[in-house]
Amino acid sequence: MQDDSLSLKYQGLGPDAMKALAAPLEINTTIEFLDLEGNWIMGEGACYLCRVLKENVFVSHLNLSDNRLGYNGAAAVCQLLMVNKTIEKLNLSGNNIGDQAGELFHSVLTKSNSTLRSLNLSHNRLEDGAALWLKNAMIENETLEHLDISWNHFQNKGCVLIAQGLKENVGLKELAVAMNGFGAEGGKTLGDALKVNRTLQKLDASYCRLPTECIGSIAHGLMHNDHLKIIDLSYNCFRAEETLELLKGIEKNEASQLSLLHLGNTQVEAKFKDLQDKLRKERRLEVIHGGILDDYRMEITEMDPMEIFRRDPFTKLKEWVAKAGYRLIDLLRHFDKDQSMTISTEEFRRGIASTAISITEEQLQILIDRLDNDGDGEIDFSELVEGDRQHRKAKRDVLAEMERRASQGK
């Protein structure tokens, strides 16, 4: 403990060991970077730690991610931040922090002498109630530079509030809102925010269910924004025909500083690629996308039935299930975070995003529509079984077609 950093990641400390560790930390004068990720110290352990750090003037970076802190742990951390004047970077990712903690973080972020520069609240359970508190905090706070609230439970209303907060914010340089349910209204409000914000340099809005209808608003925002350098819009619900509007918005902005536009596996048309090449040459803009749609269509047309079957989204899902050593019931349990024995379409999206399955947003929507037979927004075991039955039948049909072609010498 004489070094300037102490890393005890995934050491199984628990609250009791955290209590023992708190004693030497109280008198330590060298540690500036403290990493306790993945120790399940819970709220009790957080109380022990925060009690001794209140008077500490040395620790500036604190990582408490994946510790099951819950509300009590979040409250202890926020009480610490109200008096501590040295912590600049805080990671609270994956701590089961719920909506009721929103007011706590608002108090921390709006205190007059806040020293916090980076806050990671990703992979928690913050919902639309907390979004209102975060909106007001973003409007009032001028010192926070990095905020990660991705992989929470914000729906359309909450995402609109977050975007409204960004619109009036004057301090953030990086904002991550990935894997939240922005939808059309949230996407349009996000575009409005980009139009007037003058500090943000990096925005991650991947996996946000942004539909094609909001592309115009986002493109309009990019047309007027001269500070943003990186924007990640990957794995949203964009159609190839409308993506060109994004590039046209950037092209019209001669003061644009954008260096990377990430569209993930969204496919584009040939005229998009032409403008992309032009902007790469003139402005060094890099664009990531899923390839040219016309090329893909031609490839599919020339493909044999078995290859088309292999690219089917349910085929990809079953391959991942088999590779993971799962059964279909195991898949249900793996994705079912609230233990309801059904998977909401939101849980299904989050579950797929946490895997290494190579699947486009369009394919994911096809898969959801196929499995959610009754359209109630929930996928239960019987619907998984029915999807598997239909998939097996499709495979038999493909094999029969292949045999028929072979017998005809095709």
Attribute tags:
11-stranded parallel sheet; alpha/beta; globular; two-stranded antiparallel ribbon; 17 helices; 10% strand
Plain-language structure description:
Residues 327-358, 359-394 form the EF-hand domain. Keywords: Calcium. This is Leucine-rich repeat-containing protein 74B-like isoform X3. Residues 389-410 are annotated as: Disordered. Residues 396-410 have a biased composition (Basic and acidic residues). There is one protein chain. This protein is of the alpha/beta class and 410 residues long. Helix 2 links the parallel strand 2 and strand 3. The strands form 2 sheets. Strands 1-2-3-4-5-6-7-8-9-10-11 form an 11-stranded parallel β-sheet, with helices on one face. Strands 12-13 form a two-stranded antiparallel sheet. It is 50% helix and 10% strand. It has 17 helices and 13 strands.
Task: Show unreliable segments.
Answer: 296-302
What is the β-strand count? 13
Largest sheet: 11 strands, parallel
Distance between the termini: 73 Å
Q: What spatial form do the alpha-carbon principal axes imply? A: globular
Structural class: alpha/beta
Q: In short, what is this structure?
A:
This protein is an alpha/beta fold and 410 residues long.
